[in-house]
Amino acid sequence: MSAMPKRRPEVGVIEMNAAPRILRTQAEEIVQRARQAADTHEHEAKERGQEIVAEAAKRAERDIEAATKRALDDIRREVADLTVMATEKVTRKTLDTDDQKRLVQEALSELDFSTISAGSSNN
Fold first, then answer.
1. pLDDT per position as a tens digit, 40-58
2. What is the pTM of this model?
3. Is 68 inside a domain boundary?
């Protein structure tokens, strides 16, 4: 009996042996792309979240400033009304328009609204 010559593995067998490595490489590439996509999505979500927070802070600041202005206007009106009422009670006479304006201006000039206004702009 003569020794049989060694057969070369067929191409199909070689390809079958290489298939797991190719599949593993492809799987690693898919996982890497998925990680990159997740990182990108996370970064974009953080940026959008920061934009939303900044917009909300600006809106809140505008709302606070508007509320402060309304409150100061209300206080000024109340001071004017109280000044006229108190003066009429003390003098026991009804004041004419010019007297009312003069008294209100005097009363308002004695009040220091700048600390209230300045305090709201620091917040």
1. 999 999 999 999 999 999 9
2. 0.52
3. yes
